[in-house]
Specification:
Layout: E1 4-6, E2 9-11, E3 18-24, H1 31-44, E4 48-53, H2 56-59, H3 62-66, E5 68-71, E6 74-76, H4 77-83, H5 88-101, E7 104-109, H6 112-119, E8 126-128, H7 136-143, E9 149-152, H8 158-167, E10 173-178, H9 193-201, E11 205-209, H10 215-222, E12 227-231, H11 249-266, H12 278-284
Parallel strand pairs: 3-4, 3-12, 4-7, 8-9, 9-10, 10-11, 11-12
Antiparallel strand pairs: 1-2, 5-6
Length: 289
């Protein structure tokens, strides 16, 4: 099972866990907030941040956009969706800022026009959201860009994941185990799916989590997840649909630190006597081999 190159990182078995802070829409339409989140991710030691990009009138029907929904942007769902989207000038600012931090960034694009829009920023990879796994045309559009793909598998059967993998066959691919509820209940996280997906597909498998807390994400790394993605928030009490299922900066710093500790502790699996054990062995073992 080979690793996948994302920017200057190799992601896969035997390599450091690739840690992504999902900014998503937690910027609430404010570039200043987006930059603060990127700074927090960089300070925590993350490898990358991720955004979301939609062409609103393509992704949503006219009826859905007209649906009443109160938000800081207006009184309809369309007001909200349009208010959360950044344009070219905002992403140019984000691009320059992430580069200044030495931080990779990319996006999950929900339609073909958004893929074309993001190509101008030369992303190191694409994330395909769980909601898009069965969108064959969109997967093929991503495939034609020739960039690595992170394919999230939430709300999908193994057969649906099989079809998604076949659609992007030939490209460098990482699967992400995911459960698409916000926040995810412990009994629905199903971390044992990580080695199952590795065995079935022979591909690197990561974990995209939406649960409250950090312990299950750490367990995912111990089970072999080659990358992890968690939403980042300046404050989980902030307005926004994803904030409550996110991790605040201090928690992200602890998550990164603990992941790196787990990587060191996992070792190579060979059973041996360490030099540090020899004096203790000589002192405590009644029968010396």
């Amino acid at each position: 099972m080979q690793g996948v190159r994302i920017g200057n990182r190799i992601v896969g078995p035997g390599h450091p866990t690739f840690i992504v802070a999902e900014i998503g829409i937690n910027h609430n339409g404010d570039v200043k907030v987006a930059k603060k989140l990127a700074q927090a991710a960089a300070s925590a030691g993350c490898d990358a941040v991720k955004f979301q990009k939609r062409t609103v009138d393509t992704v949503y029907s006219a009826d859905e956009l007209a649906r009443p929904r109160e938000s800081p942007f207006g009184t309809t769902n369309g007001d909200l969706k349009r208010g959360l989207e950044f344009g070219a000038s905002q992403y140019a600012e984000i691009d320059a800022y992430c580069r200044s931090l030495g931080l990779l960034w990319f996006a999950s694009c929900w339609d073909e026009a958004s893929v074309d829009f993001m190509r101008a920023f030369d992303p190191p990879c694409w994330k395909i959201a769980s909601a898009s796994l069965t969108d064959t045309a969109l997967l093929q559009h991503h495939r034609h860009t020739g960039r690595p793909i992170l394919l999230s598998t939430g709300m999908s059967s193994l057969e649906q994941v099989d079809q998604g993998v076949k659609t992007v066959q030939g490209e460098e691919l990482i699967l992400l185990h995911c459960t698409s509820t916000y926040p995810t209940r412990l009994e629905e996280i199903n971390l044992r799916a990580i080695p199952r997906l590795q065995e079935h597909f022979g591909l690197p498998v990561g974990y995209s989590g939406h649960e409250v807390g950090l312990s299950t994400t750490l367990a995912a790394v111990a089970l072999g997840a080659c990358m992890v993605e968690r939403h980042i928030s300046l404050d989980r009490a902030m307005w926004g649909s994803d904030q409550a299922a996110s991790v605040e900066p201090q928690g992200f710093a602890r998550l990164v630190k603990d992941i790196r500790a787990i990587e060191t502790a996992m070792g190579d699996g060979a059973k041996r006597v360490y030099d540090s054990e020899v004096p203790i062995m000589r002192k405590l073992r009644r029968v010396q081999a």
